[in-house]
């Protein structure tokens, strides 16, 4: 069983920054991909960013230049540094890990508001 535990969400003003963390534990196969999705109220869940085991990254167009995904393979931890946040970034952010199957975290709320 794989568990993902997220941290780092909260309330931030427009233009501010937050850093999300997600630690995975359990039986994890190497070669996995980790990343982040988000879901805003009334909208579908959308991919934000991902990073492969060998650090190949992907970013959704709407976060390019503002968000940075990174990982510590030894710690099975993925991070999302979010800068220049705007109210449209308000959502629940979900960490995921994909190896032979998909695993999800419980979600962490990010609210961008003045």
Using brief descriptors, characterize the structure shown.
114 residues, mainly beta, seven-stranded mixed sheet
Order of helices and strands: EEEEEEEEEEE
Mean pLDDT: 96
How many runs of DSSP E, i.e. beta strands? 11
Shape category: globular
Helix content: under 10%
The structure class reads mainly beta
Instruction: Determine Rg (CA atoms, Å).
Output: 13 Å
Which oligomeric form is depicted?
single chain
Number of helices: 0
Cα(first) to Cα(last) distance is 40 Å
**What's the story with the biggest beta sheet?**
7 strands, mixed
Low-confidence runs: none
Note the beta-strand portion.
over 45%
Descriptive notes:
This protein has 114 residues and is mostly beta strands. The radius of gyration is 13 Å and the shape is globular. The strands form 2 sheets. Strands 2, 4, 5, 6, 9, 10 and 11 form a 7-stranded mixed sheet that branches. Strands 1-3-8-7 form a 4-stranded antiparallel sheet, with no helix packed on it. It has no helices and 11 strands.
């Amino acid at each position: 069983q794989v568990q993902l535990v997220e941290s780092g969400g909260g309330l931030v003003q427009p233009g501010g920054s937050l850093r999300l963390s997600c630690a995975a534990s359990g039986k994890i196969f190497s070669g996995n991909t980790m990343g982040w999705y988000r879901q805003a109220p009334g909208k579908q869940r959308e991919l934000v960013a991902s990073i492969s085991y060998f650090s190949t990254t992907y970013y959704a167009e709407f976060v390019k230049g503002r968000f940075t995904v990174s990982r510590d393979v030894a710690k099975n931890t993925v991070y999302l540094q979010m800068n220049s946040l705007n109210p449209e970034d308000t959502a629940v952010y979900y960490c995921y890990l994909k190896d032979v199957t998909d695993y999800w975290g419980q979600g962490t709320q990010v609210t961008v508001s003045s």
